[in-house]
Amino acid sequence: MSKPIEMRRCVVCRQVHHKSELLRVVRLKENFFFDETGKAPGRGAYVCKSPACVSSLNKRRNFDKIFKVKLPNEIYEKICAAVE
């Protein structure tokens, strides 16, 4: 038997993509970090690797709304750097 394909939804465009096609930010208690491996424990939220979604994410601050707390700017900067 093969493993099921893990699908996740982008917080910006709301499209469902394979987990490997998305970038993940994790909340672990009160700490937030950019999860490069996609396997870190904690509550995660995903965004597409497309420049359009990332630029919209920076304008709208979607992760702030999802986690209901203001995320540090370093998180958004790391996401921008990962797309470039």
If you had to describe this structure to a student in words, what would you say it looks like?
- The structure is a single chain.
- With 84 residues, the protein is an alpha+beta fold.
- It has one domain: YlxR-like (Hypothetical Cytosolic Protein, Chain: A).
- It has three helices and five strands, in the order E-E-E-E-E-H-H-H.
- The strands form two sheets. The chain has a three-stranded antiparallel β-sheet with strand order 4-3-5. Strands 1-2 form a two-stranded antiparallel sheet.
- Strand 1 and strand 2 form a beta hairpin.
- The model has no long low-confidence stretch (mean pLDDT 92).
Strand content: 25-35%
CATH fold descriptor: Hypothetical Cytosolic Protein, Chain: A
Unreliable runs, pLDDT <50, ≥5 residues?
none
Binned, the helix content reads: 25-40%
| Tally of helical runs | 3
The arrangement of helices and strands along the chain is: EEEEEHHH
Distance between the ends: 37 Å
Structural class based on helices, strands and sheet pairing: alpha+beta
The coarse overall form would be globular
* CATH architectural category: 2-Layer Sandwich
For the largest sheet, list the strands in their spatial order. Answer: 4-3-5
| Mean pLDDT, all residues | 92
Number of strands: 5
CATH superfamily: YlxR-like
What is the name of the CATH class?
Answer: Alpha Beta
Sheet with the most strands, sense and barrel status: 3 strands, antiparallel
**Integer-rounded radius of gyration:** 12 Å
**Number of spatially distinct domains:** 1
